[in-house]
Amino acid sequence: MKLNIAVLPGDGIGPEVMDQALKVVRAISEKFGHTLHTETALTGACAIDAVGDPYPEATHELCMRSDAVLYGAIGSPKYDNDPTARVRPEHGLLAMRKKLGLYANIRPVTTFPSLLDRSPLRADLVEGVDFVCVRELTGGLYFGRPQGRSEDGRVAYDTCVYSREEIERIVRLAYGYAMKRRRHLTVVDKANVLATSRLWREVAQEVAQEFPGVETEYMFVDNAAMRLIQWPKSFDVVVTENMFGDILTDEASVISGSLGLLPSASVGLHTSLFEPIHGSYPQAAGRNIANPLAMILSAAMMFEYAFDLPDEGAAIRRAVDASMAAGIVTEDIAPKGAKTYGTSEVGDWIAAHVAQ
Ligand code: IPM
Ligand code: MG
């Protein structure tokens, strides 16, 4: 198969972890006989510095003509500490989501046996946790208009907007995942307060009729935030709107004990995108200490979701598990006192392992 991949390394540790994922993608492609074509483009703070736009048109064109996008991370302290900056790296991310029609963000949350004691939760609560968050990504408060300030600057406003169509397509997608998993879907909203949430619940109840084999549960977002900590094993697939999903997925991401391990996929109308959920971690940039596993696992998701090549994805996952079992890991997940490895050594080891 021909694999046309757009590579957007971004800022901070993005380029380093991307290099490792590409080593693994190359090794897998060779082993399974795929023809790999990658092209790299600018995004994030480095794109602002180079061309004044965090998601340049040339980058968008590359994404549109590719079969999948591998995305590192964006962000720079230069912009984080300047609330008056008119162009920000995050604007590029939002523009990209909108222009590629990436309306669904999929974040699997699983735990790794060797890391159970790193979770802030008790090991018995965490062991066996395995759920997927499906977050709506191109609507709600992030994109609703009007948004802004009053003329005197003393009042600010954001608008939460959702249409039936936007809700229906994401809820249906979530049911699709539930059907392939344990057939349990939690619809998270704030229907006791918000009009958009009441529409979510109404539409979700309609779509539920089409999936009688799936057990549907409706939960207010505050309760869901609590349940994620109290009983994370009770979830299978969770679907929710943009802002709630942003918050709940960060909460969910710490359950497994390390942010450096969790991949994500964004899918929608055009090319799908695969990225680690961690940020650009500027303090670690260039030091060969960043954990490349989330980026490598994002590449595994790419094989599974974008190319429908589950064997390739599984081979990458096995190699990642093997590297952890062998203790070939970066310092953030190494047991106390154990030898630790650099970003590129972990990448080399996994690439060599998948090639076997
Ligand atoms: C995420 C991030 C982004 C978001 C930021 C960087 C704009 O937090 O992908 O979850 O809020 O969606
Ligand atoms: Mg977030």
What low-confidence regions span 5 or more consecutive residues with pLDDT below 50? none
Shape: globular
Query: How is the largest sheet built, in terms of strand order?
Result: 2-1-3-12-11-4-5-10-8-9
The number of helical segments is: 13
- Look at the structure and give the CATH class of the largest domain: Alpha Beta
Bound molecules: 3-isopropylmalic acid, magnesium ion
**For the record, what is the CATH homologous superfamily label of the largest domain?**
Isopropylmalate Dehydrogenase
Helix content: 40-55%
* Mean pLDDT across residues: 96
Q: What is the CATH topology descriptor of the largest domain?
A: Isopropylmalate Dehydrogenase
Number of domains: 2
How do the SSEs run, as a string of H and E?
A: EHEHHEHHEHEEEHEHEHEHEEHHH
Give the helix/strand class: alpha/beta
- CATH architecture call of the largest domain: 3-Layer(aba) Sandwich
Number of strands: 12
Organism: Tannerella sp. oral taxon BU063 isolate Cell 6/7/9
Catalytic activity: (2R,3S)-3-isopropylmalate + NAD(+) = 4-methyl-2-oxopentanoate + CO2 + NADH
GO molecular function: 3-isopropylmalate dehydrogenase activity; magnesium ion binding; NAD binding
Domain Isopropylmalate dehydrogenase-like: 4-350
